[in-house]
Amino acid sequence: MQNFLYDLRYAMRQLRNTPGMALLAILTLALGVGANTAIFTVIDSVLLRPLPYAHSDRLVFIGPGGDKPTFGSTSWLNYADIHAQSKLLEDSVGYAEDVSVLEAKDGSVSVVAPRVTSNLFTMLGQRPLLGRTFEDVEGKQGGPAVVLLSEGLWRQTFHADANIVGQVVKVGGKPATVVGVMPATFSFPESMGADLKKGIWLPVQPTQEMLTQRGYHFFNVAGIMRPGVTVSQMQQEASAIGARIPHEHNDTPVTFRVDRYQEVLTGPVKPVLYGLLTALGLVLLIACANVSNLLIARALGRRQEFAVRASLGAGRSRLMVQMLSEGLLLSLLGCGVGVALAELAMIGIRKLPDGTIPRSDTIAIHWTVLLVLAVIAALTTVLSSLLPALLVARANPQLALQAASRGLGSKSAGGKLSGWLVAGEVALSTLLLVGTGLLFRTLWNLEQSRLGFETAHITTFMAMPSDAAGFSGMAVSEDTGNAPSSVATITYEPVLERIRQVPGVESAAMATAPPLSDMDLHSSFEIVGEPLDRANRPQARMTAVSEDYARTLGTPIVRGRMIAESDALTTPFVVVVNEALAKKYFPGKDPLGKQINLGGKDTGMIKPFTIVGVLGDQVDSSVGGTVQPLIMLSQQQIPTTSLFYQALLKTVVSFVVKTRGEIPVMQEMRNVFHQQAPAFALDNFQTMQEAVDKNTFSQRLGLYLVGSFAGLAIAMVIAGLYGVLSQLVSYRRREIGVRMALGATRGSVAKLVLRQGSILIGAGLVAGLLLAFATGRLIKGFLYEVKPLDASTYVSVAAVLTAIGLVAAFIPAKRAASIQPMQALRDE
Fold first, then answer.
1. Where are the chain's structural domains?
2. Which residue has the higher pLDDT, 600 or 559?
3. Where are the beta strands (DSSP E) in 566-608?
4. Residue 480: pLDDT over 60
5. How many CA atoms lie less than 13 Å away from 537 in the CB half-sphere?
6. Is pLDDT at 312 greater than 80 in this prediction?
7. How far apart are the C-alpha atoms of 570 and 770, rounded to whole Å?
8. Both ends of the chain: CA-CA distance in Å?
9. Which helix (H) or strand (E) is 179 found in, with range?
10. Mean pLDDT throughout 275-295?
11. What is the DSSP letter of 97?
């Protein structure tokens, strides 16, 4: 221990003697360690740490069958069968993601309002901050109307009123009694994101449609497996339950998929985070190689010192411990600065847009991260110090003393080792640069891809009526004689007319699901006159639109016409479909004039609809993604007694406004609604360009991050190559002087150094390109319209790295060419 402390003190003195080298090594390690610490903190918080629920390791999500984990919805009847028949579940719950409008003293606010079964809170082991959770009677059909508030909403909207429990508020235009407040730490279902921090919970009170129609898919199912049960066993049981359904209930076949809830929640970001961790691991290796080169340079510069110490009796192990001590000190200092950089990175990560990373509010540096940091410190110590230590230990004292008098050539062990390390840095940098190039091509292709709509001067926003019906409590009304007036006629049309009169507004339209709005309502339909396949019914996204929708967004009509103002309840019912639907369900045929049914009595859409137009495809949920079939209905032709009316017009709609220039759209629209529909809650104002940028944010973030890593790697390569060649020139100073004294020109000396640099760059490039070729398929899922083995990217990377390498080699080459022969020989 005494020797170790002595070695550390000696190492500190050595580092003080070479502050430039020490600072460069510490900063190099700090960047590598800090970036790795930051990304592992995210992985630890998001992927590895358990969800904040009781028995979260046994929490599973049961959705419809599919190829990958996803929050797919099912029906109340399917949930009831699972709840009643499962022997491997300790308990199961159902919930529906929904929205509503809450009326308080300060006005109406739109809120996310998941509807949950009354046993959810007990199953998850959650207690309210105030009051109580739901009782069983409140989850029955026709049960009491109650609501649970989130802590954020309670504090912001109700000003943390301690007497809130028992008060009556209006939710969706109907009175509901507040029975409790849930703490800020509770946010189930977490798939609804940060909005739930200021949301509400309502009890599921199944409607007649939910109790009788298995195809009513607005419901999600989760459960806690019994101890010792595996997901595979649970999957087998769920599959068996699904197989029995058509035989017991004369229904269509049902398939279920069982996944751990956390896997479904974090699945989309898992490959991204692990990909970034791999890239940062490469950066850390490059940093260690750079520090090793610096320590090798110091070791070679101190070869006389080590030779004298060895001659005086110091053993090889003693010399190795000394070098490892210096490496340990550098690693500890680098890790210390790296933690500070990681904390700065955490600030940036927490400012990412909501939804970019699930559970982002839980991201923090925990003890597990510090443990990994200790491992990183040990790893960097070994990687950066082992080679210099071995070099010192293997040195022959007599040869080292002789070499001090005649210089050291590039063929020495130290020179070769430094060269190999630089070649390795070039190889790893090549891999990062290839990834950056492919991601850049992907982002470019996304930005140049066909959107199907214009983005300039177009703004969208959402509007919710105070009596919003919600998606999960829909029901068909049989009282067609007393059907209420359509909100489209009494509210939306007058509002649209007033919006069009606002100075600077060119056109305006209403649409339930404009592009990139995250509104994704699907329905099955039947084509009149064609045989029905119950197991594979045609499916399409549904939206209600007003006239001027296509003109406002600048989307072309491919065939026929668009929805018109004259398409009302008293005229023949019509729909417009997109190209994707026409190609999928009417291949080689003209869809105009064809009729479709949208459920008949089951949905309240009694009359068939005639296809009168085909609209050009618009991007729906993701830029560059597959466009789904789409059916557009006239907002005036949806019966108010139907399910479609409640889902499309009575819950949340969007308005699309195109202006002639820059005007304060948000303020103007709020003024219009304040005059025409003051009870509506407006939210989510954004331009179409902002919507596109938000949708491609993940790709841009990935490009920026990997590009930053690649830039950092290149900087390290430049430093490493420059250091090795400068070291080469320094060690061969006497040799170069002799060469020039014997007639060598300055040009030939410069070429000698440049050739040495070119060999290192070439070897690293070949190895890096082969490595990129071998691993290219791993990033295939992140690319869009570009192949992992894109030739232009590989050629560009090779050209860039070659040019950068030659620039880094130029200064040492120029210095070698400027050596004065007599001065070099006299100095030696």
1. 1-55+270-406, 67-254, 422-445+692-828, 467-678
2. 559
3. 574-578, 595-597
4. no
5. 16
6. no
7. 69
8. 41
9. strand 174-182
10. 77
11. -
